[in-house]
From TrEMBL:
This is Gliding motility lipoprotein GldK. InterPro entries: CTDL_fold, Glid_motil-assoc_lipo_GldK, Sulfatase_Mod_Factor_Kinase, SUMF_dom, SUMF_sf. Keywords: Lipoprotein, Signal. It comes from the Bacteria. The keyword Iron-sulfur does not apply. Residues 51-456 form the Sulfatase-modifying factor enzyme-like domain. It comes from Chryseobacterium caseinilyticum. Residues 1-19 form the signal peptide. PANTHER family: FORMYLGLYCINE-GENERATING ENZYME (PTHR23150:SF19), SULFATASE MODIFYING FACTOR 1, 2 (PTHR23150). Gene3D superfamilies: paralog of FGE (formylglycine-generating enzyme) (3.90.1580.10).
C-alpha cells in the first residue's frame, strides 16, 4: 500500500514539472517554489491621533462600586470585564472642534452649488474671480488619468462617489458680500442665508437647516445575522448637524439663559467649552467626518500609509474602564471617596451640597459648563470624565444589554433602541451621578444642554505601542 502511494506522488510531481514547457512557473525568482510573503516585517506602531491618549487594555470590575442610594432597577451590577486597548479623546469635544465640522459641511454645500451653476467653467483666472473658477475639477482638467476617464464614462463608482463631480478645494470661497466676484456667485451664496423676512434686524444668518451631512456606513450586525455581504447592508444617512442652541431655553423654562442661547456655540469666548445640544446621531456623524478627514489625507499622499482606523463613540464598558483611570473599585475617576481635594477645591464641575450651582467661597466652581481641562486628569490622562457634561456612548440603556453582554470586549449595539446610555454626570447633577458606575440615559434624537461626547479609535492588538504625534 505504501509503495502505491509513493508511485502516485512521483507521478503527480512529474506531471507538474513537465507542464511548464521546461521552465518552472511555481513561485517568484529566489523563492525556490516556497510561499514567502514579500511584505515588510517591521512591527506596526499605532500613531496616536492629535488630542487623544492611549488607553491600555485590561480587566476591571464594572458596575456600581459604592452604595447605590437610588436603588435604580437599571443600575449596573458588578461583573468582571476585559477590554482591548484604544485611543480616547483626552477631553470632551469642544465648540471649536465641532465648528470645524460645521464649516466643512457649509463649504461643501456652497462649492457643490457653485460647481453646478458654473457648468463647463470659464476663464476667471483660477483664483475665484468668477463663478467659472468653481466648476468641477473634471471640467477643468485636461490630462485625466485612465482611471478618471473610466469613472467619467461609467458615471462614478459603485459606492456612490462620482469622479466627475470632484470639487476644487484650492479655489477660495468669498463669504463677504463686498468680495462676491459676480452676480451668479452672489445668487448662489445668498441662497444659503435666511431670507430678509426671517431675520431679526439686519444680521445675515446662515440657514442652518440646510447644513446636512450625508454619509454611508455598513450594517455589520445585519450582515452577520443574514450571513451575507453586499449593498443590501449599506445604510445612508443625511443628518442635520447644527447643534440645537434652544436647549438652553427648553431645558430650563423659567431661567434667564438667553445669553447662552445666543452665544454659547458660536462666540469665541466659548471655543474651549464642550459642545452641547448635539444628538446621538449628530455625534456619530461627527465621528464619520473625523474618519473622512484621515482617509482623505491618506489618499492625498504620494506614498499612502496603512488605511486609517475609523473613529467612533465608546461603548458603555469602554467609557467606564477609561473613567476609572486604572484604579479598581474607585468611586470617582480620581479615586474617592471625596469630591474635594485636601485644599478644599472641588475635583469636578457639578452641583455641590444641597443644590448650589456655584459657591463663592470655593475656588474653581462654575455656574454652567466649564472650559475643558480645568480639572485634574485621571490616571489615564483623561480630563472631565466626571462632571462638566455627560457623554453619549454607543450602548443602549437597558438591563439585558448590560447584564448579559460578553465579558470580553462587550459590544451592546442596538440601533433600534431609542434609549442610549450617557455617562459621567454633568454641571447640573449632584455628586452621586459623578460616580464611575452611575448610569443615565437619554433618547438618541434628543439634544440637551448638559450632554456632549468624545470619540475613540481602536488600537490593533498586534500594535507595539502608541506613537506620539508632535503638537
Amino acid at each position: 500500500m505504501k509503495r502505491i502511494f509513493l508511485l502516485l506522488v512521483s507521478a503527480s510531481v512529474a506531471s507538474v514539472s513537465c507542464s511548464g514547457g521546461g521552465s518552472s512557473s511555481v513561485g517568484k525568482p529566489g523563492t525556490k517554489g516556497e510561499l514567502i510573503p514579500r511584505e515588510k516585517t517591521s512591527s506596526f506602531v499605532a500613531e496616536r491621533p492629535y488630542g487623544m491618549v492611549a488607553i491600555p487594555g485590561g480587566s476591571f470590575i464594572a458596575g456600581m462600586s459604592d452604595k447605590d442610594l437610588t436603588d435604580n432597577p437599571e443600575k449596573a451590577p458588578l461583573k468582571t470585564v476585559t477590554v482591548s486597548s484604544f485611543f480616547m479623546d483626552e477631553a470632551e469635544t469642544t465648540n471649536a472642534e465641532y465648528r470645524v465640522f460645521i464649516n466643512y459641511v457649509r463649504d461643501s454645500i456652497a462649492r457643490t452649488m457653485l460647481a453646478e451653476a458654473a457648468g463647463e467653467g470659464g476663464d476667471g483666472g483660477g483664483r475665484g474671480q468668477s463663478i467659472g473658477d468653481y466648476a468641477y475639477l473634471a471640467k477643468k482638467e485636461e490630462n485625466l488619468t485612465p482611471y478618471q476617464e473610466y469613472l467619467d464614462g461609467a458615471g462614478g463608482r459603485d459606492d456612490g462617489f462620482d469622479g466627475t463631480k470632484r470639487l476644487d478645494w484650492k479655489i477660495p470661497l468669498h463669504w463677504s458680500t463686498s468680495k462676491y466676484p459676480d452676480v451668479e456667485y452672489a445668487e448662489v451664496l445668498e441662497s444659503m442665508y435666511l431670507p430678509a423676512s426671517s431675520r431679526v434686524g439686519s444680521e445675515r444668518l446662515l440657514d442652518v437647516s440646510k447644513l446636512k451631512y450625508t454619509y454611508r456606513w455598513g450594517d455589520m450586525d445585519a450582515a452577520v445575522a443574514e450571513d451575507q455581504r453586499g449593498a443590501n447592508f449599506l445604510r445612508s444617512e443625511s443628518i442635520a448637524i447644527y447643534p440645537d442652541t434652544t436647549v438652553w431655553k427648553k431645558d430650563f423654562h423659567f431661567t434667564y439663559n438667553e445669553p447662552l442661547f445666543e452665544q454659547y456655540f458660536w462666540h469665541k469666548a466659548y471655543k474651549d467649552y464642550p459642545v452641547v445640544g448635539v444628538t446621538w446621531d449628530q455625534a456619530r456623524a461627527y465621528c464619520n467626518f473625523r474618519s473622512k478627514l484621515k482617509f482623505d489625507y491618506n489618499e492625498s499622499l504620494k506614498r499612502r500609509k496603512q488605511a486609517p482606523i475609523r473613529f467612533r463613540l465608546p461603548n458603555e464598558f469602554e467609557w467606564e474602564y477609561a473613567a476609572r483611570g486604572g484604579m479598581q473599585n474607585a468611586t470617582y475617576p480620581w479615586g474617592g471617596p471625596y469630591l474635594m481635594d485636601d485644599r478644599g477645591c472641588y475635583l469636578a464641575n457639578f452641583k455641590p451640597k444641597r443644590g448650589n450651582y456655584m459657591e463663592d467661597d470655593v475656588k474653581g466652581t462654575y455656574t454652567y459648563t466649564a472650559p475643558v481641562k480645568k480639572f485634574k486628569k485621571n490616571g489615564f490622562g483623561l480630563f472631565d470624565m466626571a462632571g462638566n457634561v455627560s457623554e453619549w456612548t454607543d450602548s443602549p440603556y437597558n438591563n439585558s444589554s448590560y447584564t448579559f453582554s460578553s465579558t470580553l470586549n462587550p459590544s451592546t449595539k442596538d440601533r433600534t433602541e431609542v434609549k442610549k446610555s450617557v455617562r459621567g454626570g454633568s454641571w447640573k447633577d449632584v455628586g452621586y451621578m459623578l460616580m464611575n458606575g452611575a448610569r443615565d440615559w437619554e433618547r438618541k434624537d434628543s439634544a440637551r444642554s448638559y450632554i456632549g461626547f468624545r470619540t475613540v479609535q481602536d488600537i490593533p492588538e498586534a500594535a507595539v505601542k502608541a506613537k506620539r504625534v508632535n503638537r
